[in-house]
Amino acid sequence: MPLRFLRGLIPGLVLAVLPAISSAAVFVGVSVNIAPPALPVYVQPPCPEPGYIWTPGYWAWDDGAYYWVPGTWIEPPEVGLLWTPGWWGWDDGAYLWHAGYWGPHVGFYGGVNYGYGYDGAGFDGGYWRGRTFFYNRAVVHVGPTFVTNVYSRPAVYRGGYAHVSFNGGPGGVVAHASRAQIMAGHEHHVAFTSLQQRQQRMAFADRSLRADYNHGRPPIAATARPAVFRGSNTFAARAAGGRYTPQHDGASMRSDRPPGATGQPRGNSERSQQRFQQQHAEQQRAQQQRFQQRSEQEARQQRFQQRSEQRAQQQRAEQQRFQPRSGQQHAEQQRFQQPHFQQRSEARPGFRPQGGGGRAAPRPQQHGGDRHPPENRGHNR
C-alpha cells in the first residue's frame, strides 16, 4: 500500500512543479504580421432547434493565409453556458489570436462587433432561465418554430468600427476589458467542442474560403448547423466588409511569438534584422533553460522514485527474513523452556512426577482431633 501511494503521489508532484495553465486564461494560439480582413456582410440562418446558441464567423490563419470559418448555430456543451468569440489583437508588432471559449458569462472579445447579439461589449442575443434559453428576436433570427421562449429587446450598436475584425493597431478597435469581463475571464471555461473543431477543419480544407481566393467575400459565410457545408443550410456573404488588401510576400507567422511558428521579421532594414536575430536568440536561450530545468526536475523525480522502490524492496526482504527467523526462535524457546520448567518443578517440595518413579516427599503427621501439641497437655488439667 505505501508503494502504491507513492506511485500515485509522484505524478501529482510533477504536475504541481510544472507551470499551471488556467482554463480561464486567454490562450494565444497564432501570431501574424498582417491584419485580418474585414468581417464579411452576411445573413444569419434561422436557429434550427431550441437551446442552440449562435457562434459568429471569424478569420482564422493557417498555411500562410487567412481563411473564413463560417458562423453557425451550435448546441453548448452544458446547459447555462454562453459563447465568448475569439478575436485578433495587436501586440508588439503582431496580431495575436485569442481563442474563444464557453462559460457562464460572456467575457472580453476585443470589442469586435460580430453582430447578431455580439456588439463588442457583451451578448444581447438571449439568456438562460433554468434549463431553457430565451432568444431576443429583435437581434437573432429564431425562425417560425419558436413560440414561447422568445422576447424582443432592440440592441444599440455603437458605430465607428463596422466590420473591423481586430483590436488595437492601425485601424483596429479601441476597447479594453471591463471589470465584469475580467471576472468572467477568470471563471471555469470549456474550450471548443468537437463540432466546432470540425467546422474549422472543414473551412480550412475548402480553398474557396481563403481570403486570397474570395477577396474577403466567402461563398459560405454561415451555416444553419455545424459541419454542414452543402445544401440549403449554407448562406453566402452578400459583400466584403471592406476593401481587401492582398497579402504581400513574406507575410507570415512570427517565429518570436508562440513556439512552433515560423516566418520573417517585419521590414528589410538592418536594424529590423538585428532585432529579429536578438529576439530569436533570446527565445532559444529561454527555451533551453526551460528544457534544462524540466530535465533536471524529471531526473530528480526519477531518482526519488528509484529510491522509493529500493526502500520498498528492502522492507519486503526484511519481512521475508524476519518471518522464518521468528518461527525458529519460537521453537528453540519451547525446547529450552521445557527442561528448565521440569528442573524447577522437581526442586519444589511435594513434587510428584507423573507416571511413577522416585520417592515422594514425607507427608506431615496428624494428631486426630487434639489441636494442642503434646508438650502443652499437662498444663490444661
Low-confidence parts = 1-27, 249-273, 355-361, 366-381
How is the largest sheet built, in terms of strand order?
1-8-7-13
Mean pLDDT: 75
Radius of gyration: 43 Å
Helix content: 25-40%
What's the order of the H and E elements?
Answer: HEEEEEEEEEEEEEHHHEEH
> Tell me, what's the shape?
elongated
- Please identify the structural class as seen in this structure: alpha+beta
Q: What is the number of domains?
A: 2
Structure annotation, total helices: 5
The biggest beta sheet reads: 4 strands, mixed
Strand content: 5-15%
Cα distance, first to last residue?
89 Å
Keywords:
5 helices, disordered N terminus, alpha+beta, four-stranded mixed beta sheet, elongated, about 375 residues
Question: How would you explain this protein's 3D organization?
Answer:
The protein is α+β, with helices and mostly antiparallel strands and 381 residues long. It has five helices and 15 strands. The strands form five sheets. The protein has a four-stranded mixed β-sheet with strand order 1-8-7-13, with no helix packed on it. It has a four-stranded mixed β-sheet with strand order 2-5-14-15, with no helix packed on it. Strands 10-11-12 form a three-stranded mixed β-sheet, with no helix packed on it. Strand 7 and strand 8 form a beta hairpin. Helix 1 runs antiparallel to helix 5 (270-347). The model is unreliable at 1-27, 249-273, 355-361 and 366-381 (pLDDT under 50).
